[in-house]
UniProtKB/TrEMBL annotation:
GO terms for cellular component: plasma membrane. It is found in: Cell membrane. It comes from Lentimicrobium saccharophilum. Keywords: Cell inner membrane, Cell membrane, Ion channel, Ion transport, Membrane, Metal-binding, Sodium, Transmembrane, Transmembrane helix, Transport. It is a multi-pass membrane protein. GO terms for biological process: cellular detoxification of fluoride. GO terms for molecular function: fluoride channel activity; metal ion binding. It comes from the Bacteria. The keyword Transport applies. Fluoride-specific ion channel. Important for reducing fluoride concentration in the cell, thus reducing its toxicity. Coiled coil: none annotated. Na(+) binds at residues 76, 79. The gene is fluC. It catalyses: fluoride(in) = fluoride(out). This is Fluoride-specific ion channel FluC.
Protein backbone atom coordinates (compact mmCIF):
# COMPACT_ATOMS: atom_id res chain seq x y z
CA UNK A 1 0.00 0.00 0.00
CA UNK A 2 2.82 2.42 0.85
CA UNK A 3 4.39 1.78 -2.56
CA UNK A 4 1.13 2.70 -4.31
CA UNK A 5 0.75 5.84 -2.20
CA UNK A 6 4.29 6.88 -3.14
CA UNK A 7 3.50 6.40 -6.85
CA UNK A 8 0.34 8.50 -6.52
CA UNK A 9 2.01 11.14 -4.36
CA UNK A 10 4.99 11.59 -6.67
CA UNK A 11 2.68 11.82 -9.69
CA UNK A 12 0.53 14.39 -7.89
CA UNK A 13 3.63 16.39 -6.96
CA UNK A 14 4.75 16.51 -10.59
CA UNK A 15 1.22 17.19 -11.86
CA UNK A 16 0.80 20.15 -9.51
CA UNK A 17 4.09 21.65 -10.65
CA UNK A 18 3.17 21.08 -14.30
CA UNK A 19 -0.23 22.72 -13.73
CA UNK A 20 1.36 25.80 -12.19
CA UNK A 21 4.04 26.16 -14.87
CA UNK A 22 1.73 25.56 -17.85
CA UNK A 23 -1.09 27.73 -16.53
CA UNK A 24 1.28 30.56 -15.65
CA UNK A 25 3.08 30.32 -18.98
CA UNK A 26 -0.15 30.51 -20.97
CA UNK A 27 -1.68 33.25 -18.84
CA UNK A 28 1.48 35.37 -19.07
CA UNK A 29 1.68 34.90 -22.85
CA UNK A 30 -1.89 35.87 -23.69
CA UNK A 31 -3.23 39.04 -22.10
CA UNK A 32 -6.88 38.40 -21.31
CA UNK A 33 -9.15 38.35 -18.28
CA UNK A 34 -10.41 34.92 -19.39
CA UNK A 35 -8.66 32.23 -17.30
CA UNK A 36 -7.08 30.72 -20.42
CA UNK A 37 -4.25 29.05 -18.49
CA UNK A 38 -6.59 27.11 -16.22
CA UNK A 39 -8.90 26.36 -19.14
CA UNK A 40 -6.07 24.75 -21.14
CA UNK A 41 -4.79 22.86 -18.12
CA UNK A 42 -8.26 21.39 -17.55
CA UNK A 43 -8.75 20.42 -21.19
CA UNK A 44 -5.24 18.97 -21.43
CA UNK A 45 -5.81 16.98 -18.22
CA UNK A 46 -9.05 15.59 -19.64
CA UNK A 47 -7.25 14.54 -22.81
CA UNK A 48 -4.44 12.89 -20.83
CA UNK A 49 -6.74 10.92 -18.52
CA UNK A 50 -8.78 9.82 -21.54
CA UNK A 51 -5.59 8.67 -23.24
CA UNK A 52 -4.38 6.80 -20.14
CA UNK A 53 -7.65 4.98 -19.52
CA UNK A 54 -8.17 4.43 -23.25
CA UNK A 55 -4.79 2.71 -23.50
CA UNK A 56 -5.61 0.62 -20.42
CA UNK A 57 -9.00 -0.39 -21.88
CA UNK A 58 -7.33 -1.46 -25.14
CA UNK A 59 -5.04 -3.87 -23.34
CA UNK A 60 -1.90 -1.77 -23.69
CA UNK A 61 0.60 -3.10 -21.17
CA UNK A 62 0.47 -0.32 -18.60
CA UNK A 63 1.25 -1.56 -15.11
CA UNK A 64 -1.18 -0.75 -12.33
CA UNK A 65 1.50 1.39 -10.66
CA UNK A 66 2.13 3.41 -13.83
CA UNK A 67 -1.61 3.88 -14.39
CA UNK A 68 -2.06 5.10 -10.81
CA UNK A 69 1.01 7.36 -11.12
CA UNK A 70 -0.31 8.92 -14.35
CA UNK A 71 -4.09 8.97 -13.88
CA UNK A 72 -4.64 9.37 -10.14
CA UNK A 73 -1.32 11.05 -9.33
CA UNK A 74 -0.24 13.21 -12.26
CA UNK A 75 -3.68 14.00 -13.69
CA UNK A 76 -5.12 14.38 -10.19
CA UNK A 77 -2.39 16.86 -9.28
CA UNK A 78 -2.63 18.51 -12.69
CA UNK A 79 -6.41 18.93 -12.48
CA UNK A 80 -9.24 17.15 -10.69
CA UNK A 81 -11.42 18.24 -13.61
CA UNK A 82 -9.93 15.34 -15.58
CA UNK A 83 -11.16 12.81 -13.03
CA UNK A 84 -14.57 14.51 -12.96
CA UNK A 85 -14.79 14.25 -16.76
CA UNK A 86 -13.69 10.61 -16.81
CA UNK A 87 -16.25 9.65 -14.15
CA UNK A 88 -19.00 11.41 -16.12
CA UNK A 89 -17.94 9.58 -19.28
CA UNK A 90 -18.12 6.27 -17.38
CA UNK A 91 -21.65 7.11 -16.20
CA UNK A 92 -22.69 7.91 -19.80
CA UNK A 93 -21.13 4.68 -21.09
CA UNK A 94 -23.03 2.73 -18.44
CA UNK A 95 -26.26 4.40 -19.55
CA UNK A 96 -26.69 6.07 -16.15
CA UNK A 97 -28.15 9.26 -17.57
CA UNK A 98 -29.81 10.23 -14.30
CA UNK A 99 -26.61 9.82 -12.27
CA UNK A 100 -24.64 11.61 -14.98
CA UNK A 101 -27.08 14.52 -14.93
CA UNK A 102 -27.08 14.68 -11.14
CA UNK A 103 -23.31 14.38 -10.81
CA UNK A 104 -22.44 16.88 -13.54
CA UNK A 105 -25.17 19.37 -12.74
CA UNK A 106 -24.88 19.26 -8.96
CA UNK A 107 -21.07 19.30 -9.05
CA UNK A 108 -21.00 22.50 -11.10
CA UNK A 109 -23.88 24.16 -9.25
CA UNK A 110 -22.85 23.16 -5.72
CA UNK A 111 -19.18 23.76 -6.49
CA UNK A 112 -19.95 27.33 -7.52
CA UNK A 113 -22.26 27.74 -4.53
CA UNK A 114 -19.60 26.40 -2.14
CA UNK A 115 -16.98 28.72 -3.65
CA UNK A 116 -19.36 31.66 -3.25
CA UNK A 117 -20.09 30.54 0.32
CA UNK A 118 -16.40 30.35 1.15
CA UNK A 119 -15.83 33.84 -0.21
CA UNK A 120 -18.87 35.16 1.64
CA UNK A 121 -17.69 33.59 4.91
CA UNK A 122 -14.35 35.35 4.67
CA UNK A 123 -16.18 38.70 4.50
CA UNK A 124 -17.90 37.80 7.78
CA UNK A 125 -14.94 36.46 9.72
CA UNK A 126 -12.23 38.75 8.31
CA UNK A 127 -13.36 42.38 8.52
Amino acid sequence: MLKILLFIGSGSFLGGIARYLLSRSIQNTVITSFPLGTFWVNITGCFLIGLIYGLSDRGTPISNELRLFLAVGFCGGFTTFSTFSNENLALLRDGSILYFSLYAGLSVFLGLLATFGGHALTKIIVP
